[in-house]
Amino acid sequence: MPVVDVHTHIYPSVYTELLRSRDKVPYIRSFPDAPTAGDRLVILPAEDTASTSRGRPIGSEYYDIRQKIAFKDANEIDISVISLANPWLDWLPPNEAAEVAKKVNDDVERMCEEYPKRLYAFGTLPLSASANDVVAEIERLSTMKHMRGVIIGTAGLGGTGLDDPKLDPIYAALERTGQTVFLHPRWGLPGEVWGPRASEYGHVLPLALGFPHETTIAVSRMLLSGVWDRFQDLNVLIAHSGGTLPFLAGRIESCVAHDAHLKHGGKLERRRDLWDVLKKNIYLDAVIYSEVGLKAAIDASGADRVMFGTDHPFFPPLDTGETEWLSVRLNTRAVQTALGDDQKTVEDVMGGNAVRILKL
Amino acid sequence: MPVVDVHTHIYPSVYTELLRSRDKVPYIRSFPDAPTAGDRLVILPAEDTASTSRGRPIGSEYYDIRQKIAFKDANEIDISVISLANPWLDWLPPNEAAEVAKKVNDDVERMCEEYPKRLYAFGTLPLSASANDVVAEIERLSTMKHMRGVIIGTAGLGGTGLDDPKLDPIYAALERTGQTVFLHPRWGLPGEVWGPRASEYGHVLPLALGFPHETTIAVSRMLLSGVWDRFQDLNVLIAHSGGTLPFLAGRIESCVAHDAHLKHGGKLERRRDLWDVLKKNIYLDAVIYSEVGLKAAIDASGADRVMFGTDHPFFPPLDTGETEWLSVRLNTRAVQTALGDDQKTVEDVMGGNAVRILKL
After folding, report:
1. What does the pLDDT look like over A112-122, one tens digit per residue?
2. ipTM confidence score
3. How many CA atoms does the CB half-sphere of B191 hold within 13 Å?
4. Residues of A with Cβ-Cβ distance to B300 under 8 angstroms
5. Of B307, B294, B299, B296, the residue nearest B350 (C-alpha)
6. What pTM does this model have?
7. Among A261, A218, A252, A244, which residue's Cα sits nearest to residue B201?
8. CATH superfamily of A4-8+66-357
9. Å between A114 CA and nearest CA of chain B
């Protein structure tokens, strides 16, 4: 059984060129006040301050597909389902977004062509354009040989969130064409929540907590707005093992059951509950770095719905030159220790589930 | 083996009288625009808007200890470790806080005297006063017969958080007197994260997600600031099964291990990791409403460190008149299903651990 990585990012050159041509967030460039730091990718306004830790370093591992292949070989990964990462295309002027999306998706499709049976992809949507443009790109993606779904952030159309009813034609198109949505955090949480000493803790708090909390909020909003009541066949792969959903699903359902406003409004009477959605519509990656978390993910969604991932090229080894990555090892070990002697299920989570679910 | 509830709140009358005498947040009163809604407790500025859902209804179950006893009898709970709930005393003028804390703690101690072997308590600290005043109250609490520790929110001294080094004398006093800290969320998250349709979802998002996320952030800040390196015997019972810590501990440790800033700063070289702290300094309540969450809590901290709780008088049944509470049943059932046939461990989590840890 092949090992499949469903959470692995690439910035194709058409996209990095666009970011290099810009002088405000999001953008890529080097800084005169930190000349040795190389090119930096600055995604968020809060990262855009003058210091050597402005944004994050971006080297060829972000855009050169050969480096992805070398990483896979060194870390024993057979197949990768690549996707564009933050900040995708939702910041583009609406009249440019549809064209750029086509170019990005064509570029990614070409990479997959170049490495047959080793690469598949999630496409990118022009979410700053109209719902019609987005639906057209979903339909185009469904005809492309290596595309297996789409990656989206939590912003929705113009920042109004994934619980906006304006997304219904988009959800309908994804459901109709059988494409999986890879849902990935973008913003984290407002900076004030990290407190006055946050800078002493590096990027730990926003990355470790902001991302999964953002994801949990976004999916809970989808659930409460009835997305899965209206689209019962919409399948969503949630990054980072669901944010914190497996752990908090019980509390979410209890809060719904005890809410006088919801009860008296009658809105949620016929609603599907989160446990049902977790087992029928939600897939989870295995990017959780611990046996405890992975067990909870499997308990929540089922061992047949959890799929190995790496988050490459993020979280590289701090000692340059290491080719086997600690971040990969932590996730592989979590699968092995959580499932013990059940080698068949280890193989399912490491690749078999992805082959079946994404038809690789 | 008795059933022990370690997470159960009371607002003693000295405290409710204080809130009734006020006309701005936090306060208790009825509203002319909603005369049938009865008395409402308004804790947060965001709750203080004119509607029938302003704040929350507050009846005698919030302050009459006889109602707590009746609830316990109806729900088969033998011993309760009661504590003041939101918003504690940190909003008081500094020159009043120490006196009010004494009155509140004396009032709670009297309740415990009244029901021997059925009530113990976590005391309240005057966190708007000076660290000296707080330490004095900690020492006084340690001499009181039914006090078993203190409850605190996430604000710290004057809102600077639990990672403020100014808290060190307070942590030292708690460690020295062997008192357990019951750490409980207060604020949730900034309202903007719930999005433009939040009001359609009742109180679900802030309660179900805001509270545990706030807790997770607070404890992570304590960890990263080295609180448990300096106070290796400081014991903290974390509300709601640790917020989301059991699920995210792996991601937190991975983010630390991959952070160039922390590595090159050298600050965290000798740091204790979160798994070690979870197993030696952290206790978790079992207020998580699901088997999946409870298993993760036990996997993270150990079955000898998790203790049953109810969050009474919050989350009452929506059908008035029901004396057996759904919220209690969900948590009891989670313990039973998570531990299956291991009746000894079920009894430990339901009460034995609390008896041993809190010396009841």
Report:
1. 999 999 999 99
2. 0.96
3. 9
4. 292
5. B307
6. 0.96
7. A261
8. Metal-dependent hydrolases (3.20.20.140)
9. 32
